Amino acid sequence: MSNRYIFLYASAMVVIVALVLSGAATLLRPLQERNMRIERMQNILSTIHIPAPRGEAEELFDRYIIETKVINYQGEEVEGDAFEVDLQDENRKDPSERDLPVFIAELDGEKYYIVPVRGGGLWGPIWGYISLESDLATIYGANFDHASETPGLGAEIADREFEEQFRGKRIFDEDTNFRSVRVVKGRAPEDDPHAVDGISGGTITSNGVQRMLRDGLGIYEPYFKKIRTS
Amino acid sequence: MSENNSMPKENLLSPRNRKLLTDPLGKDNPINVQVLGICSVLAITVQLRTSLVMAISVVAVMGFANVIISLLRHTIPPRIRIIVQLTVIASLVILVDQILKAFVYDISRQLSVFVGLIITNCIIMGRLEAFALNNKVWPSFLDGIGNAAGYGWVLLAVGFFRELFGSGTLMGYSVIPQFMYDIGYEDNGLMILPPMALITVGIIIWVQRYKDRRLIDIS
């Protein structure tokens, strides 16, 4: 077969494959984006322990999330749609320029503040949502997810069991100093309100969670303090 | 195997075609006998569920890839055949990934990186190169499905033992009763680490060769 044929064959193949794949991607994009929106709603709702089946997530989200706002690093409210803020972009910016989303939920008369966090695991990004009780120091619920952590090891951060450990942990100590929550290799001391058990075989991912909480919640500190004093 | 166009039309499930489907399950198994695709066995058999979905995805990709390459077999320039094969596999895998994301989002979330890993599965390219390039569409399809199933059952077997002994669960449900833990039974953390996948595969190979002496390599 001549070189000419080979070149033509390769070119035609590339064009056809490109057409098929971009066609499929374009056709399926709206469906995929809707799925991702719904998943985000499910994740946010799961931090206040509301199980949201796929079909009902949007309705439940509207019912329980009573307010969303975007704030800056000084805790001042700024313009923007909290649901559309992409933390991946925000984390690249200087802290003073970041948009920080807050979701406020009401459940049985109690207010909960839900904030997103994002960081890095072993293989790729990890992210999640943390809900705080109205004292803005006690964690009410946590939800984590990851792009490509190892199943059975680092990926266990997305397991209910790991997430449940955060319930009742405190991110501020009695003197209202920001302490975050540590993810301890092995077992965390049982009476330590600022530590949870890490994942065996997933130490780097566990450390990633710890760093993500410290940075991700830390940047909200001025806002939390502001609300608490008002 | 070479093509023979003068042969009378064969029954779709003639003995020869059936062998294409069944040989890879046993005496020609891609993992146990040909020792291919070992890396993905290490990576994704921590849990039975991921093993299962991976097995199904590989069956789909391998069936289609074999059919497409077999259809194109007279046109593919031999000098770039590997690139053509890779392109076909990669496109199919991306397509599968996109479709899963659009229609069964939850399952696609569980699979995460594994779908992409199918591209690197050397069994698929091995079959394209060794079979689909020289055979008609139907036998190629059977060969693809057979090899993928042969890969799949080993995956499931390894996943079964690793999840059972490593986490005490199957498909995510606890199966080791609580009293076992009460009397001192512990899940074996070593089972969830990759080396135990290799050892489990080794044991499967051992059992298979013990039963079928012809597989023992005496050279």
What are the key terms here?
heterodimer; A: 230 residues; alpha+beta; 6-stranded antiparallel β-sheet; 6 helices; 8 strands; 38% helix; B: 219 residues; mainly alpha; two-stranded antiparallel sheet; 2 strands; 63% helix; disordered N terminus
Tell me what the structure shows:
The complex is a heterodimer of chains A (230) and B (219). Chain A is of the alpha+beta class. Helix content of chain A is 38%, strand content 22%. Chain A has six helices and eight strands, in the order ααββαββββαββαα. In chain A, helix 1 crosses helix 2. Chain A is globular, with a radius of gyration of 21 Å. The mean pLDDT of chain A is 91. Chain B has 219 residues and is mainly alpha-helical. Chain B has one domain. Chain B is 63% helix and 2% strand. Chain B has a two-stranded antiparallel ribbon. The longest helix of chain B is centred in the last third of the chain and has 31 residues. The N terminus of chain B is likely disordered. The chains are: A alpha+beta (230), B mainly alpha (219). Chains A and B meet through helix 1 of A and helix 4 and helix 5 of B.
Structural class of chain B: mainly alpha
Instruction: Give the strand tally of chain B.
Output: 2
* Beta-strand residue fraction of chain A: 15-25%
Count of β-strands of chain A: 8
Distance between the termini of chain B: 24 Å
Counting DSSP H or I runs of 4 or more residues, the number of helices of chain B is 10
Largest sheet of chain B: 2 strands, antiparallel
* Secondary-structure element string of chain B: HHHHHHHHEEHH
- pLDDT averaged residue by residue of chain A: 91
Instruction: Estimate the helix proportion of chain A, in percent.
Output: 25-40%
Integer tally of domains of chain A: 1
Strand order of the largest sheet of chain B: 1-2
Mean pLDDT over the residues of chain B? 85
DSSP strand content of chain B: under 5%
Order of helices and strands of chain A: HHEEHEEEEHEEHH
Largest sheet of chain A: 6 strands, antiparallel
How would you write the strand order of the largest sheet of chain A?
2-1-3-4-5-6
Computed over alpha carbons, the radius of gyration of chain A is 21 Å
